[in-house]
Amino acid sequence: MPESYGVGLFDGIKDSSKIKNINLEAIDINIKNNVKNLLFDFSVGGITSTCENSLIDNCTVSGKIKINDENTYVNYFVAGISGIATDSSIINNCTNQVDINVSTSREGYEDMMDDTTSAGGICAYIYDSSISNCINNGNIYAIANCRYLECGGIVGSNFNPKESVHLIPIRNCKNYGDVKALGGYSVTVGGIIGRGHMSIDSNINYGDISSYAYGWATSGGVTGNMYSSPHLQASIKRCVNYGDITSELLTSPEILSSSCSISGGIVGSLPDMDSSIFIEQCYNAGSKIVANSKDSSKRK
Q: What are the distances in angstroms from CA 9 to CA 30, 44, 45, 130, 271?
């Protein structure tokens, strides 16, 4: 496992901590790294870098977060409220007004490992936790030449292990920020969550969503990529998208023959053909859905 580092008002909270009623104005987090070939995780959040088995309630953050990294192998998790939330944490009634800009570089496409960059307005990466009644007003822009780049207006990405008995919920959240990600092999962007296995209920996206990749570019008004499992069906209910959706495959001599771009008003792609997700009472009101590549597809 790589070492972990973090930046936030709190450098990690855990053990049933409760953070309430904090208003941070005009924060300015600027991180530069030019140390080569070190493998580690770096979590950044306006309130806390990580949230483990804890509560964040009624907090507001404004300002900007900027990452400029020339290291090849750093996994970044960057968000306005908490970089990572795990172990039954709850984030409720929080508002992000932080603009997030993440820029990482490497020497070449052929050097890609399974490194990940995730960015979200509220939380970058969530595991076995919940987010409700939150609003993102910040814009998110990420350019990262990594293996996986996952960005969302509320949450960047989540992981749900096969043994899970319940879905991670995102409820009653709104995203007003534009989310744009440009990167390496796989780029997944969503108005609410970039990629996940979740229960998404009563959320609205107003921001424009766009992804650009050398391998797979996937964009969705609610989620770019939703996966499920035979014993625990993911779901999207009562969600609306008003944003324009764009995905584009970047021109590159290393491009794979199976590469493509996928755009959807609600969901970009459903990769697991052995399982399904449940979609109910959802509506796409965006004026544009575009997918550009030599093997492009559209879903609405």
A: 14, 10, 8, 21, 37
Encoded tokens for 69: 């990294």
In sign, the C-alpha dihedral spanning 190, 194, 196, 201 is: negative
pLDDT computed for residue 188 by the predictor:
96
C-beta of residue 146 within 8 angstroms of C-beta of residue 116: yes
The mean pLDDT value for 94-105 works out to 94
Q: pLDDT tens, 235-248?
A: 999 999 999 999 99
Radius of gyration of the chain from its Cα atoms, rounded to whole angstroms: 17
Host H or E run for residue 130: strand 130-132
Distance CA 80, CA 64 (A): 9
Q: Please check whether residue 54 is in contact with residue 19, taking contact to mean a CB–CB distance below 8 angstroms.
A: yes
Which residue in the block uniquely carries the two structure tokens 């989540």? 158
Name the maximum alpha-carbon separation found in the chain. 51
* CA–CA dist 269, 247 (Å, integer): 12
Residue 141 in tokens: 């822009």
Please tell me whether residue 109 adopts helix, strand or coil conformation: helix
d(CA 41, CA 89): 20
Would you list the DSSP string of 257-297? TT-EEEEESSEEE---TTS-EEEES-EE--S-EEEESTT-E
CA 79 vs. chain centroid, Å, equals: 9
Q: Which pLDDT does position 298 carry in this prediction?
A: 43
